[in-house]
Amino acid sequence: MNDNLNIQTLTLTELRDLSAHAFTRHTLTPEDFDHIFRQCDALWLHSGDPKAPHAELTSGKCSNGFVDVLRVLRYTNLCSILAEQLLDQLIGAMHQTVSMADKQIPYFEWVVGSDHAGATLSFALAQLVGAQHDFTEKGPDKTQVWKRFDIEQQEPILQVEELVTTTGTLQAVRDGLRRGHAHPLRFFPAVLTLVHRSKVYEFEGSPIIYLRHYDIETWAPDTCPLCAQGSKRLRPKQNWAELTGKL
Fold first, then answer.
1. What is the pLDDT of residues 45-88, one digit of tens each?
2. In DSSP terms, which residues pair with 157 in a beta bridge?
3. For the whole model, what pTM was predicted?
4. Which of 17-31, 47-61, 115-129 is predicted least confidently?
5. What secondary structure letter does DSSP report for 9?
6. Helical segments of the chain, H only
């Protein structure tokens, strides 16, 4: 890739033409990341204008931001690029805490994500390092179930999610892995996510390593400051053009 290429000038068509291999020595800036997500109609952040609409989430709560990571990950080249960027972020974090050779990849035998978007990203990352891969499936009452394979006790597991908001999915996946095995499991001392919008930065004593953090707030409608200012509530996926001002 041309080192002078400005990611923030590229259209979605041009982004889809990018080669994942060409990004080996290129680090995305937060602004690059935002541009990619906006081109994929995957990111909206409220401008602060009280006349502008805001998001109504599936839960019924209000929000000043919305991120739909799967809308980016469906493009396989972008999924691969982001997976490699996330792996580089992990390597950089490990370099700060242990002595490692340049670009040496920390050892994990398994990479595990959750159904559905988390599994897309975790597979791409596992493919980069030749690790084994599978994902948990949704069970009753927001549980995650591990069904197919037996992970040996000595095989480190790296957990990967596309988005962390409350760490609830991280916990559900880990609980599902533990329920699916009669022996203790060994988890890699970090978890990875593309988008971090949580106020929690550790999970079971290990750091949550991410590419992009957003301070996105949610409120009940009766306490929403945007509603109080007269801002219109919109369901993002059904009203994307109006929400983002493209109408």
1. 999 999 999 999 989 999 999 999 999 999 999 999 999 999 99
2. 110, 187
3. 0.92
4. 17-31
5. G
6. 12-16, 30-39, 70-73, 76-97, 117-129, 168-179, 225-228, 240-243
Mean pLDDT across the chain, nearest whole number?
Answer: 93
Show the beta-strand stretches assigned E in 139-201.
144-145, 157-164, 187-196
CB 194 within 8 A of CB 121: yes
What are the phi and psi torsion angles at 62 (to 5°)?
-100, 155
Contact 47, 24 (CB under 8 A): no
87: left (phi over 0), alpha (psi -120 to 50) or beta: alpha
pLDDT of residue 229: 96
DSSP state of 28: -
Closest to 114 (Cα-Cα) out of 90, 140, 91, 139:
139
Q: Is 241 exposed, middle or buried (0-12, 13-18, 19+ CB in 10 A)?
A: exposed
- Residue 61, C-beta contacts closer than 8 angstroms, at least 6 positions apart: 218, 219, 220, 221
C-alpha gyration radius of the chain: 19
Of 85, 210, 198, 216, nearest in space to 160 by CA = 210
Write out pLDDT tens, residues 135-179: 999 999 999 999 999 999 999 999 999 999 999 999 999 999 999
Domains of the chain: 78-216 (3.40.50.2020)
Give me 126's structure tokens.
Answer: 């596992």
Is 66 strand, coil or helix? Answer: strand
Which residues are 63's β-sheet partners?
Answer: 55, 218
Tokens 């109006």 belong to 242
